[in-house]
Amino acid sequence: MVLAGKLSTELGIKTPTDRFFKLFSSELHEMQNICERVHQTKLHQGDDWQHIDTVKHWTYVIDGEVHTCHESVEEVDEQNKKLRYKLFGGDIDKHYKVFKLIIELIDKSDGSGALKWTIEYEKINDDIHPPNSWMDYLNTLTRDLDAHLVKDTRVAL
């Protein structure tokens, strides 16, 4: 009986990796204005979106259903463009003891970029499925963000 696992996916992006990293590290509150699958983000605890001790409340749609959870930042590695978030409360706690999202922005040698999502999780019991629908959600979210940021970057030029 395996309760813990890890899922990863790497997606090519057109937006410069620095811009993507900035969105996730300091502009996370803009997510609800960019992606239709993110219904609402608000501060639950704390007064600064970027601070590690801040807890955010998320309302989002996966597989056509509205879900909620809380999120806090565990790690911001600016040099390696890597972020680690802990998700808890709401619908997460119904299925998982541990649920972490790791985002890595990767500059490729050919000048292109990629975003790597990793989900680390521990299920509350063996009847719970791995969070494959979360990976689908993150893939769609990445495509939506990339399209918006590319358009936004072109307008800024």
Automatic annotation (TrEMBL):
Pfam families the record matches: Bet_v_1 (PF00407)
Gene3D superfamilies reported in the protein's UniProt record: 3.30.530.20
SMART domains with a match to the protein in the record: Bet_v_1
Family matches, as InterPro entries: Bet_v_I/MLP, MLP-like, START-like_dom_sf
Gene Ontology biological process terms, A to Z: defense response
Highest taxon listed in the record's lineage: Eukaryota
Domain Bet v I/Major latex protein stretches: 2-152
CDD domains: Bet_v1-like
Family statement: Belongs to the MLP family.
Protein name, entry field: Bet v I/Major latex protein domain-containing protein
Organism: Trifolium subterraneum (Subterranean clover)
